[in-house]
UniProtKB/TrEMBL annotation:
Subcellular location(s) of the protein: Cell membrane; Membrane
GO CC annotation: plasma membrane
Residue stretches in coiled coil: none
Keyword Repressor appears in the UniProt entry: no
Membrane topology listed for this record: Multi-pass membrane protein
InterPro entries for the chain: TM_pro_TauE-like, TSUP/Inactive_protease-like
Assigned protein family: Belongs to the 4-toluene sulfonate uptake permease (TSUP) (TC 2.A.102) family.
Pfam families: TauE
TM region positions: 12-39, 85-104, 116-135, 156-173, 179-207, 214-234, 240-259, 271-293
Keywords: Cell membrane, Membrane, Transmembrane, Transmembrane helix
Entry keyword Cell membrane: yes
Species of the source: Stakelama tenebrarum
Protein name according to UniProt: Probable membrane transporter protein
Amino acid sequence: MDIYLPIANLSVNALVIVFFGFGVGMLSGMFGVGGGFLITPLLIVYGIPPTVAAASASSQVTGASVSGVFAHLRRKGVDLKMGMVLVSGGVLGSLVGGWLFALLQASGQIDTTIGILYVLLLGSIGGLMLTESLRSIRAHRAGIHPRARRRRHHPLVAWLPLRWRFYGSGLYISPLAPLLLGFFTGILTVLLGVGGGFILIPAMLYLLGMGPTVVVGTSLFQTLFTTAAATMMHATTTQAVDIVLAVLLLLGSVTGAQIGARIAMKAPPEYLRLALAIIVLLVAVRIFLGLAWHPDEIYSVELA
């Protein structure tokens, strides 16, 4: 079932795109991440131009985040004050990211830049996740239960001036820390089409010292508004958002997220993290091969 993508200017199998959305949605439901860090490289591997893949993935992540935000708001799992600071930084980062995207696009280096950034990010994150999950599995088999980590923000965060009280998170820190974190995530959202949850959640836990009960909801709150701003930025400047592609991805991700949430309630978390780490590393290797490997003959003629 082929369908034409007007912005990408090519025909794709609609069922394959829906399946991609389904798979990433399932991972989103299992791990609580937006899934943009996987859907963009998968689209690139499938043959979608990196510019269109990154821009369209932002709109898909926006739609997928809406239901999650409302669910966490109902159970008071969102620190709105912290979220607004993160969103402010994310919107500013989106403006800078849009400028960088247009600059790289004009120079003809945007595709290569996106590929290199994905190899670096996915390779480092996948390696850390693989190491942590294997350590957890070995400890579980040996019957060792790790001590709960004491919640405390990083010394660099404590050094920053102008402290505010964030009652939802139980923190008394400078707003500059979440502002800078949101700014960095906003840049990545525009350049790579990611929601940023795979960076935000660890940073909020280990740098800001936020409690786990509000981390996921606050991250989704920031992701919703930042990806919406990134989508608008792409739509008005780069014109790279393919709405047909985004709708197909959303059709699959909505169903996949529900199934993934059910799997997450039954499967051991350390094995889920191990599976995600392997998937992330495989995608990183595939993108690296696409960047580094060149055929012996650029053109070939096949006689019928």
